[in-house]
Amino acid sequence: MVENDQTPPSEEMQPLSVTPSTSPSSNPTTPQVMNLEERFQLVRSVGEECIQEEELRNLLEKKPLPICYDGFEPSGRMHIAQGVMKTINVNKLTKAGCKVKIWIADWFAQLNNKMGGDLKKIKTVGEYLIEIWKAVGMDIDGDKVEFLWSSDEINSRAHEYWPLVMDIARRNKLPRIMRCVQIMGRSEQDELTAAQIFYPCMQCADIFFLKADICQLGMDQRKVNVLAREYCDDIKRKNKPIILSHHMLPGLQQGQEKMSKSDPSSSIFMEDEEAEVKTKIKKAYCPPQIVEGNPCLEYIKYIVFPWFHEFKVERNPENGGEKIYKSFEELVADYESGGLHPGDLKPALAKALNTILQPVRDHFSKDPKAKDLLKRVKGYRVTR
């Protein structure tokens, strides 16, 4: 049917607002000890890329409780980037006075054929993800972090969601949507189902449906976040979602741009045993004096330093003795010069990672619900 009314459904929804609150001090999550510049720097440190920085600064200045969103397909065991890096980033955002909405994208996993499209299994994996984030130390006290299931939220507000999805689909040509399939771990050359072509329109709609001010996802999700900003231009919407894209941690083997759940050797999983972590790091690609493309150094930069604010290497006195690096730059200089050898770096990295992961292992060994979830998730076959 031809429709002359061009009013987009999203305009009926609450806008992405940066209108100053009349009483910001009344909000308990508004930080009292951090000034605007400190908040901006802390939030900005989460992203490898920010579109746009001035918009982010303006948002933090005028809105006491900005809403950040990230989403995950429950698609298998959680690797350390999803678990620890996400926890580090969420805790930075809540410290800076943001509210974080984590979208447990169960319907999206089904559309993308994860867990063979079995929604019951997908929901089990989603429960497992939440257990890990709680165990590793995500700051979920109060209402700082909200876990939302896509199926529940969409069903409860279908009258808002589906007109928005349809409007986004109507305003974009198929080639533009196809450029977004990277968000599902697909390429434009793959033979896609109709569901997978619909997926980017839904993910774009999520941003407005969740009233997100900041899209805090990985660099691999950048294209659909840009699509959301383009949609704002289409509907003449002034306040666009800010894109804060975090770094993608590579796989542990040479040339692996990202971790793969289907290749256990490519990543550390959040409930890996201590011996497994040691073995995986021992076998990881870590060429002497080479920094570029070195996954062990990336783990230290994006996990160990943000967590401990230092990196401790224990060596025999004849090999240089114990050394504590206070900055990543100091470590890189030593590594490039040959002053720090992979044979000393790897055990120190494994020890640091095991220290971070021990509370998770403890939780999944002692808590009956978590133990059962892990057993079931490990028994599922990972599908693409």
TL;DR of this structure?
With 384 residues, the chain is α/β, with parallel strands linked by helices.
Structural key phrases:
alpha/beta, 6-stranded mixed sheet, 15 helices, globular, tyrosine-tRNA ligase activity, tyrosine--tRNA ligase
Q: SSE layout and pairings?
A:
Layout: H1 36-44, E1 49-51, H2 53-62, E2 67-72, H3 80-95, E3 99-104, H4 106-111, H5 119-136, E4 145-149, H6 150-156, H7 158-171, H8 174-178, H9 194-209, E5 214-215, H10 222-234, E6 242-245, H11 274-283, H12 295-308, E7 311-313, E8 323-325, H13 328-337, H14 342-366, H15 368-379
Family: Belongs to the class-I aminoacyl-tRNA synthetase family.
InterPro entries: aa-tRNA-synth_Ic, Rossmann-like_a/b/a_fold, Tyr-tRNA-ligase_arc/euk-type, Tyr-tRNA_synthase
Region (Disordered): 1-32
- Spans with pLDDT under 50 lasting ≥5 residues? 1-31
Number of strands: 8
Average residue pLDDT: 88
Structural class: alpha/beta
Q: Beta fraction of the residues?
A: 5-15%
Question: What is the H-and-E element order?
Answer: HEHEHEHHEHHHHEHEHHEEHHH
Helix content: 40-55%
Most strands sheet = 6 strands, mixed
Tally of contiguous helical segments: 15
| Basic shape | globular
**Strand order across the largest sheet:** 1-6-5-2-3-4
**Termini separation (Å)?**
36 Å
Radius of gyration: 22 Å
